[in-house]
Amino acid sequence: MNSMTNNIPLSTPLDIRRGLTNAADVAFPLRWGILGAGRISGMWVEALHACEGATVTAVAARELDRAKEFTRQYGVATAYGNYAEMVEADDVDIVYIGTINRLHKEHTLLAIAAGKHVLCEKPFAENISEAREMYAAAEEKGVMLQDGVWTRFFPAVEHARTEIENGTIGEVVLVQSDFFDPIYTIQAVPLGFGADAALTSVVAAGRYARGAIVEFGEDKCAVLTFPPRNSELPEVTELVGTKGRITLERPAHCPTRLSIRIPPPDGVPSQYRTGNAPAPLHAFEYPLPRTVSMRNASPNQHGFLYQAEAIHRCLAAGLRQCPQYNKEESLHAMNLLTEIYKANPPIPRR
């Protein structure tokens, strides 16, 4: 199996592959302000340092001393002890929302009201109603509001998407994914089925909503599991089609490896009709960017750079969303998350 189509790598970012942006526009200048001085915000800034057009001009935290410590650690110019003051700053073009989950909506709307573009860390919102309100505010102001599901920007995922679009594995009929953070598994559903797939039923189970089976009509199904964080979870995503199977290998929420199994032209998909021999394996590997210097990184967190560069390219082109994970897919995932929690509300952790 070739990793190129018409001399274009299958892992080419979707915005470039569709001719929406210019690859060189990673150098498009954007001045970033950071809301929240936690560890994830720090890793985001370290990735931005490797993005040619990015400058991190400000950080805000609930306590000024914490913001000042962040500037010292990560080389940010200005510290604020007030969120509203930072989003109004003249030297901030785009705001990264890295505060605690329950404040994502409030802080996103705060930045949008100030006329700033926004990248909101996942989970984007607490439910579908909040998400719709956030997108409506961004559209009214004419600014970008990007859901921070960085998974979608990894080259392995870009490759998987291209193979699905090319019909390499036929029609996707089953999505299987696991991870302790539900949104990472749920985002795989619109990746496989598209954002227009109509949800027809949801069954959720487990004391903390540990899993869900979701139907989309009579012939499409997603099996999503959310194991405990400290368990030996598989952490893979599989997209099963009528002609083959794509596996985003561990860690599937930030994958660097992709496996594709497709029967030979004279073969059959079922291994039980071929002496229990699986279809031939085609493996691809995409190393992490070497330009990112990151201390105490979580697995593959260097890949934040892929999303950062896409945002720069898209804003340079006048786009208000990245096609890798657009408004429709984001809302599709948020709606599914809402429905899963309706089916079996998780018990609050103490």
What can you see in these coordinates?
The chain has 350 residues and is of the alpha/beta class. The chain has two domains: 133 residues, NAD(P)-binding Rossmann-like Domain (Rossmann fold, 3-Layer(aba) Sandwich); 152 residues, Dihydrodipicolinate Reductase, domain 2. 30% of the residues lie in helices and 21% in strands. The protein has eleven helices and 16 strands. Strands 10-11-12-9-13-14-15-16 form an eight-stranded mixed sheet. Helix 5 runs parallel beside helix 6 and helix 6 runs antiparallel to helix 11. The longest helix is centred in the C-terminal third of the chain and has 17 residues. The model has no long low-confidence stretch (mean pLDDT 94).
- The assigned CATH architecture of the largest domain is 2-Layer Sandwich
Overall helicity? 25-40%
Distance between the termini: 50 Å
Mean pLDDT: 94
Shape: globular
What percent strand? 15-25%
Specify the structural class.
Answer: alpha/beta
Oligomer: single chain
Order of strands, widest sheet: 10-11-12-9-13-14-15-16
Characterize the biggest β-sheet: 8 strands, mixed
Task: Write down the Rg.
Answer: 20 Å
Instruction: Point out poorly predicted stretches.
Output: none
The CATH superfamily of the largest domain bears the name: Dihydrodipicolinate Reductase, domain 2
Q: What is the element string, with H for helices and E for strands?
A: EEHEHEHEHEHEHEHEHHEEEEEEEHH
